[in-house]
Amino acid sequence: MSTTDWILIVYAGVTMAALLMLWGNLLVNLFIFRRPPVVSASVLGSPAPLVSVCVPARNEALRIGNLLRSLAAQDYPDFEVIILNDRSEDDTTAVLQAWQNDIPRMRVMAGESLPRGWVGKCWACHQLSREARGHYILFTDADTILHPQCLSSAVQFAQAHDAALTSLWPRQVAGTWSEKLIIPFVYQLLLVFLPHALVNRISHAGLGAANGQFVLFRRSDYDALGGHEAVRNHLVEDVALARATLAAGRKLLNVDGTELVSCRMYHRFADLWEGFTKNLRAAFEKNAGAFVFFGVLQATVLLGAFYLVPILLIIKGGEWLLTLPGILLLAQIALIWLMRVVFAVRFKQSVLWAFAHPIGQTLALVIALNSWVQTATGGVKWKGRIYKPEV
């Protein structure tokens, strides 16, 4: 047996063992990452706690109307809507004015100038929090759409579990080819790599995660953590807030919001590229080693087999598939495709596009590399501003 054959056996064996460990974590997470029951406001008792729905909006004329329509349809009896118009240069102002009379307790604020040392979204959310009067504060994005019973269900779930921070992970709507390739990797990062079973048991800040599209804070906990001011220079503020919540020993809940809220983050490849470039390196903050580790792990365990099999078929011929490394690599491809099909079915994504995994995984790693390069050099661009993350 040649040296190459031994290297292939070791590689295939190690990556298969790693893939099986990831599958084990995924299976546990699929049970833990539950869906809140869809309930009406009647189960909350009387009076229901006031909820402040806070929405930062910068150039969101094409999207925010759908959110406002869904807020107007909420069955929750006691909530206010506060929108910060962050110096929008499109028709956002006109859209907000058109909806002013349809949501009785809706207020629109004009955004103040961005202070030095603040990220735009953190500054917007901080301004919103100063105006919020609710027992709960919901920070949500302008491109989300809420099911009519979303507020009722989320508040009931948060109360039932005594959670400081409850984050619903919306159904991610994908329209273009780039969205269908990349957006499902949100679920891969969430359920394959994060051990949800440990999150509130060991309160390690490194296990913190949340989705800024729907972050519901109990107001007392939000204030105790220092709110968005405490994470004012973090580009990925939702993850930073989740980590702060765990570090303070408070309860964090990440739950499947597929039935309660949806979101289409991007509509063009350029926006998707810019958005993930902003987030991927910054999410690891100063832990560059973890960023490299997860990149290498994905390249070797979740992608390598897709490249090795056709290359080795050309070099060694079809009989190679019947050898031990050939069988192991083919089994890995099958398990990875099955993993993607599980995501597609569970989170209402395209099953067909799940089989484009190697293309999507390759593109995701290219974006991650670009995120690292941009972060380390001139900074990343977002919403017309340039940020230099502290990494």
UniProtKB/TrEMBL annotation:
It is found in: Cell membrane. Its main location: membrane. The keyword DNA damage does not apply. Residues 52-222 form the Glycosyltransferase 2-like domain. Pfam families: Glycos_transf_2 (PF00535). Belongs to the glycosyltransferase 2 family. CrtQ subfamily. This is 4,4'-diaponeurosporenoate glycosyltransferase.
